[in-house]
């Protein structure tokens, strides 16, 4: 891991001292996400309510430039010139390098159909079954750590050999036991947990971006 990446994690803890207890798990999560990307995988994120918004937020930071500009590399630009020579410069100048990520929360038609036809608490697990590969990594976000649908998604991920990260609170919970890596922020109330989740996943996204796009 780059020294600049480690410095980002140190800066997170400096700005949010309560997260010192999570430092090692945050670094472990960065390493796991980077390993997934290096092996051709993607991030799969899920959660409920505010945590669903967090899942979408994570995808937004990974799929486009977050802190860095992520310029298009020369190899891809060359292919752009072959396929669409008149638009190649526009594409190169405006597109950004992407870290593949999907949220399980935005498939409204699929989720509602599965909930209506089968079992509502298995809608996320169904998507993991259909979309997940062993190279991927799943981030399950839950302030209680006991969200049934997230638990089922994590279980299906493990069935498929997908590494799992839990972004959780300070309570003892089922997801802490299930996930390969558990980032347990030291708060008990939902809104306080969410207030610490945001800087944690910002740091995760920033650190992973730094590993792949900082020259």
TrEMBL record:
List this protein's GO terms for biological process: carbohydrate derivative metabolic process
Asked if the Swiss-Prot or TrEMBL record annotates the protein with the keyword Isomerase, the reply is yes
Residue ranges occupied by any SIS domain in the UniProt entry: 33-214
> What are the entry keywords?
Isomerase
Q: Name one GO molecular function term.
A: isomerase activity
Q: Quote the InterPro entries the UniProt record gives.
A: GmhA/DiaA, SIS_dom, SIS_dom_sf, SIS_GmhA/DiaA_subfam
Q: Which residues form a coiled coil?
A: none
Pfam families per the record? SIS_2
Q: Does the keyword ATP-binding apply?
A: no
Task: Please state what the protein is called.
Answer: Phosphoheptose isomerase
Q: What is the organism field in this record?
A: Anaerovibrio lipolyticus
């Amino acid at each position: 891991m780059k020294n600049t990446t480690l410095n980002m994690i140190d800066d997170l803890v400096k700005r949010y001292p309560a997260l010192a207890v999570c430092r090692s798990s945050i670094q472990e999560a960065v390493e796991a996400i980077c390993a997934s990307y290096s092996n051709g995988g993607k991030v799969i994120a899920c959660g409920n309510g505010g945590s669903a918004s967090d899942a979408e937020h994570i995808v937004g930071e990974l799929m486009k430039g977050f802190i860095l500009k992520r310029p298009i590399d020369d190899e891809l630009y060359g292919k752009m010139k072959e396929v669409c020579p008149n638009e190649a410069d526009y594409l190169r100048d405006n597109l950004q390098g992407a870290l593949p990520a999907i949220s399980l929360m935005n498939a409204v038609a699929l989720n509602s159909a599965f909930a209506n036809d089968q079992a509502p608490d298995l809608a996320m697990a169904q998507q993991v079954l259909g979309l997940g590969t062993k190279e991927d990594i799943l981030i399950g976000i839950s302030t209680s750590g006991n969200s049934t649908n997230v638990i089922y998604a994590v279980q299906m991920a493990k069935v498929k050999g997908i590494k799992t990260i839990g972004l959780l609170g300070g309570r003892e919970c089922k997801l802490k036991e299930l996930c390969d890596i558990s980032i347990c922020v030291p708060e008990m109330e939902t809104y306080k947990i969410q207030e610490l989740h945001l800087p944690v996943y910002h740091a995760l996204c920033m650190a992973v971006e730094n590993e792949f796009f900082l020259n």
